[in-house]
Specification:
The protein is mostly helical. The protein contains twelve helices and two strands, in the order H-H-H-H-H-H-H-H-H-H-H-H-E-E. Helix 1 runs parallel beside helix 3, helix 3 packs antiparallel against helix 4 and helix 4 packs across helix 12.
Length: 231
């Protein structure tokens, strides 16, 4: 497959991601501007963090001058899901020669779904080029959206109340979709139960990290049913 064909294929496949990333990225840029941060810092965050939900949390971490240890732990907990689906990419990325570090860095939920659901690009070199392009396109959409949001926020008057709920709304949508399509609801019920319990115990301002730790612990402890492990 020619590189021009791979380029076109990767771009077409990434178009649905562009629609979401540009809008959500703009929300991040507007929030950064609302807190008084320059568009250059917004650009750097999107270039080197590139983690949608964590970037929204980063706005508050920067504003509250949170400690590096707290920020690192929060990042680990928020992005812990990457540990699970990242493992499934080890075999695929082991064959990559030139872009492996960037592909690991840029593996988001949406990029993962595209790279796992396209069986047409199978040659090693073609597969590496395609994986790189899909990752780079998705990354660029987020960066462009963030910068646009920062620029718009600096020249237009915005009421930013509710913008930070956009990521919450996205995850609620993912939760509902997963609930409707999945045959078992252990993960969903674990998330609801652990969050509610920690909310009661630690209060609304401190329940997040304990809840995420509890969820990770519960979901990583398999249980036996009929002699077989079920996650």
């Amino acid at each position: 497959m020619k590189r021009s064909e791979i380029l076109r294929k990767a771009f077409v496949k990434s178009l649905p991601i562009m629609a979401g990333y540009v809008v959500l990225g703009m929300g991040f840029g507007i929030l950064m501007n609302d807190k008084g941060y320059s568009v250059w810092l917004t650009l750097l965050c999107s270039l080197f963090i590139f983690a949608g939900s964590m970037q929204y949390i980063t706005v508050d971490l920067l504003a509250s001058a949170a400690s590096p240890v707290y920020a690192a732990f929060m990042t680990l907990m928020v992005n812990a899901r990457h540990l699970f689906y990242g493992v499934s990419m080890v075999g695929k990325y082991r064959k990559m020669k030139h872009f492996k570090p960037y592909l690991i860095f840029g593996l988001t939920d949406e990029t993962y779904s595209l790279l796992c659901t396209d069986p047409e690009v199978t040659e090693d070199q073609a597969g590496e080029w395609y994986s790189f392009l899909v990752t780079a396109f998705n990354h660029s959409y987020w960066v462009i959206g963030s910068v646009l949001g920062g620029l718009l926020g600096s020249v237009l008057e915005f009421d930013s109340r509710g913008i930070d709920f956009s990521m919450t709304a996205l995850f609620v949508t993912v939760f509902v979709e997963q609930w409707l399509t999945s045959g078992q609801h252990r993960s969903a019920l674990t998330g609801i139960g652990a969050s509610f319990l920690c909310l009661l115990v630690f209060g609304s301002s401190r329940f997040l990290i304990p809840a995420m730790v509890l969820i990770v612990v519960i979901l990583t402890i398999p249980y036996r049913k009929g002699g077989t492990f079920h996650a």
